[in-house]
Design brief:
By secondary structure, the protein is of the alpha/beta class. The protein is built from 14 helices and 7 strands. A hairpin with a 2-residue loop joins strand 1 and strand 2.
């Protein structure tokens, strides 16, 4: 790098904030040992710049001896179906990208290339799809999946995000849903964006909310979202007409009734009882009863399942201690 004048700490953070990254998000991206005093030396500043490039894709530009930060030439798409502040969603997306970039760098270091055809074949060959039996298929096909819990306050937590970089992919889930069926739908929806070629270049696609899960009354049409939904539903329903079965039930008054009907349908069709309940919620918009029924139907905590799957998969890889610490820290509250 050519000679440059060290900017002040306040100038550094202002420039990064102007890109769309809050100080709270930046603090989560930097390693635990980082001290802002390091910015006062050339070597410390260059170390800082390297970290930002690796995790956030920010590059340093020097003009007339002055330093500025430039965002990566990523394609950043937001699927925003609710009245959410775009700045808050942008901030969350940068954090998700930092995690996804770290995961992708781990795969590259281990010479692991994604195999989408293998993943598709494995999913099609499964009987009943569950979060627990689907997650290992993603990892063995080198499509890593991670759940982030550690978002800054006042940041719009996304449902999910998919990242593409150097022909690698990573999926980040953000919601606090403990229902395995709910997180499974989000995961398959994000995979749908990959399989439907919605990321044609390096970049990310962030889903702020998913109306299919009753998260928004706004039903504006988005062809890519419809395609991703259709992909997930085809996998989950295995071409069974679950909607007709749900409509035959009419309106139910007790969650136990829905749980019983969902179990019966699952035994007859091979479609998971949890997805049957979610379909009832989508068709009737009675999401309160649906969530109560899921508590009857489902055992286990989806977030714990995601964390366990992540830990088991990463233990099979060579990971720098700094990257491991960062990835593990993002999964803690």
């Amino acid at each position: 790098m050519t000679a440059f004048k060290l900017p002040s700490k306040s100038a550094v953070y202002k420039q990064i904030r102007d890109v769309g990254i809050s100080r709270a998000t930046l603090k989560r991206v930097l390693p635990a040992w980082w001290d802002d005093a390091l910015l006062q030396s050339n070597s410390g500043f260059l170390q800082f710049a390297k970290l930002l490039d690796q995790r956030l894709g920010l590059s340093v530009s020097v003009s007339d001896g002055n330093v500025s930060f430039l965002p990566a030439n990523y394609s950043i798409q937001f699927k925003k179906r609710a009245h959410i502040d775009i700045q808050q969603l942008s901030d969350a997306t940068y954090l998700c990208q930092a995690v996804a970039n770290t995961l992708i760098s781990v795969l590259e270091y281990n010479h692991c290339s994604p195999n989408l055809a293998r993943l598709q074949q494995s999913l099609d060959a499964l009987g009943e799809l569950t979060l627990a039996n689907v997650l290992p298929l993603f990892w063995t096909s080198h499509i890593p999946v991670i759940h982030i819990s550690r978002f800054p306050a006042n940041v719009a937590r996304p449902a999910g995000m998919v990242m593409r970089s150097h022909d690698h992919y990573a999926i980040v889930l953000g919601h606090e849903h403990k229902s395995p069926s709910t997180q499974l739908f989000v995961l398959l929806h994000e995979l749908g964006h990959i399989m439907c070629d919605h990321l044609t270049q390096d970049g990310s696609l962030t889903d702020s909310v998913l109306p299919e899960l009753g998260e928004s009354l706004d039903v504006e049409t988005d062809p890519q979202e419809d395609e991703a939904d259709a992909y997930a539903l085809r996998l989950l329903r295995k071409d069974m007409d679950i909607v007709s079965l749900v409509n035959q039930l009419g309106r139910l008054s007790r969650p136990a009734e829905l749980a019983i009907q969902a179990k019966r349908s699952s035994q007859a069709s091979g479609v998971s009882a949890g997805h049957f309940a979610l379909t009832y919620g989508r068709e009737t918009r009675d999401w309160i009863l649906t969530q109560q029924a899921l508590r009857f139907l489902e055992k286990g905590n989806a977030i714990a399942t995601l964390q366990s799957s992540f830990t088991e998969a990463v233990q099979q890889l060579e990971v720098r201690s700094e990257d491991s610490e960062f990835l593990m820290s993002m999964q803690s509250g």
